[in-house]
Write a structure and sequence with these properties.
The complex is a heterodimer of chains A (about 190) and B (about 525).
Chain A lengths: L1 E9 L4 H14 L3 E5 L10 E9 L13 E6 L2 H6 L4 E10 L12 H10 L3 E4 L1 H7 L6 H9 L7 H12 L4 H21 L1
Parallel strand pairs in A: 1-4, 4-5, 5-6
Antiparallel strand pairs in A: 1-3, 2-3
Chain B lengths: L2 E5 H11 L4 E4 L6 H9 L1 H6 L9 H13 L4 E6 H6 L1 H10 L5 E7 L13 H7 L3 E2 L4 H18 L3 E6 H4 L1 E6 L22 H24 L4 E3 L7 E5 L2 H7 L10 E4 L1 E2 L3 H10 L2 E5 L5 H7 L7 E3 L14 H7 L26 H13 L7 E3 L17 E2 L4 H11 L5 E6 H17 L4 E6 L18 H8 L6 E4 L6 H13 L4 E5 L4 H13 L1
Parallel strand pairs in B: 2-3, 3-4, 4-6, 5-6, 9-10, 9-12, 12-13, 14-15, 14-16, 16-17, 17-19, 18-19
Antiparallel strand pairs in B: 1-7, 5-11, 8-10
Classes of the chains: A alpha/beta (about 190), B alpha/beta (about 525).
Chain lengths: ~190, ~525
Amino acid sequence: MKTDIILAGVGGQGILSIAATIGMAATKNNLHMKQAEVHGMSQRGGEVQSHMRISDNEIASDLIPEGFADLILSVEPMESLRYLPFLNKDGWIVTNSTPYVNIPDYPEMDKVINEIEKHPKHILIDADRIAKDIGSPKSSNIVMLGAASPFINIPFDDFIEGIKMIFGKKGEKVVNDNITALNAGRNFTEKNK
Amino acid sequence: MQKIPLLGAEAIAQGAIDAGMSGVYAYPGTPSTEITEYVQNNKTAKERNIHSKWSANEKTALETALGMSYAGKRTLVCMKHVGLNVAADPFMNSAITGINGGLLITVADDPSMHSSQNEQDSRFYGKFAMIPTLEPSNQQEAYEMAYNGFELSEKYQTPVLIRITTRLAHSRADVLRNDLIAENVLKLPQDPNQFILLPAIARKRYKYLLDNQQNFIKSSEESNYNKYIEGNDKSLGIIACGIAYNYLLENYRDQEIPYPLIKIGQYPMPKSKIKKIADECNALLILEEGFPILEEMIKGYLENGILVHGRLDGTIPRDGELNPNIVRKGLGMTVTKGKDIPEFLANRPPSLCKGCGHIDTFIALNEVLAKYGKGRVFSDIGCYTLGALPPFNSIDSCVDMGASITMAKGAADAGLIPSVAVIGDSTFTHSGITGLLDAVNENSSITVIIADNYTTAMTGGQDSAATGKIEDICKAVGVDPEHIRVFVPLKKNMQEMINVMREEIEYNGISVIIPRRECIQTATRRKKEEKHK
């Protein structure tokens, strides 16, 4: 069993929190885990990605080979397309539909959405709206994790445990908000996949 | 001991802490910054009072570490690859003095230049200084190499270089820890002359270093980090260094590697192993993350030995970092790939943060310089380098830390007046002060803008050695206090900023302008923390 995930987004959108939560859940399941992050210059509003690999076998490479990822989990719609060369032919795209527009030449939204919808296995979810609806606008990244969780070979309860460990320092409210966000994302995918 | 998930950079820090390190010395630089930050936040390190404050630059860091080693303690120095250029003088000479307490120098290279102005391979420096060099392939090895590196250093009385690259530095995996070792006690070097590199003593020390080479090679031959793995298909032999070994394994997930293979993690090269693989194989493939160092050595200038494939013959691209598919192609295997990236996708280059004070500074500077035309602004390394990109297009050079002031002076010497330097606060104390002194001594007609945001911003907001000192430093160096001007870079102050810049740029002599406002990132973080309390 292995799940290779490309986490995608823009610097500051919280993909490292997603990665940390998955990492905690993986460790709890005694799975091997490798997670390559991007630090430094590109964190300044640039595109960022993280290669997250979990497996019950030992993992050799920190980077996922092209054509090998099982899942692209993107917190921004255009960014989900940037990593298509990495996705295997049966892989899922799970992406937020709310764009992050910090460049003048952001492509037309219709084009972006069409391209995502061309992919047979995709979940397109307005995580920003869902996060607002549940009263936790900062948790859209965890809504995304919830939406992607059915495609990651880890029991759902362990993601909840992961959230408790990652956000525990920030107090009970933040933990509960993020658990609500996780559930909301999960429910969306269960209904729409 | 428990397993903990650590970045490669953090694994080195944890290994050094567990091995009884008494201090880490560093200047921030991607991808090395997390080593020191980990020590700063580590509980054991706090309890032991392990030194972990930032140094002004890599040279002061390495020299200070050498002083701690002189006093008998185990010390770690960290920097990015270009930082070792700054620290090259003490680095080379520390190989000759040797050490007293164990000294590890960790250098993080950035092939593909994710956050750097060049790609260089620090293993060259290891060879240049003729000291043992370790190159981990994974996080566990990174931990072990730091943990055991001090012993290697003390056994042969030599500094030891640990070379990592971006992917390992910034990738996380579980690491199993060893027992915590006690710190060394304070003790002076046995030979009181060891660290006095007067020619007569230096010649002796240099001989000692040369004699030590056979020990270093023997250590490499016996090292667990250098493994010869037999293979039946002798049509090819593979030598994989550091993280390249992982990419090789990735391509043989469910099968044995058919070819003889050497995994390299310690230098100088293990000669007898290299000789064995060359003797028994028809050709060699060399996989190195960085420069073709082994490849050149094994191939030789005359190329009259075994056929060698690698970066020099195009089997592997000459530049950039490796990845599983590059290695796969090099092995002649079919490459998998998903769909292409849609053509309409836009790039998202890094940019100055919304609300950043540098933005206001560049707007004012562009306004004032408009009448002189382009090509007069020299800058260097920091967030403000992003002023080179649209919509600002404000700066015309970025070479190395501190090169803003000195290049502006050179251009002014040549007659390009006015010339302007844009440098950050932390970069100014790193490498700008001496250049400013040169300019003052000749009363060069340059304007130096020291953009002060109270932090080392690009690397994530580390303390800046300049905070609260810039005006005093400039005065002490000899800048006329009337021409040291300070303002707050904000939209509402735009007219004042433009006026000040215009006056100083028109002034025929040296002036310093200090736009001063807290970095928007550190300000947000600070406010959040204050709210939390």
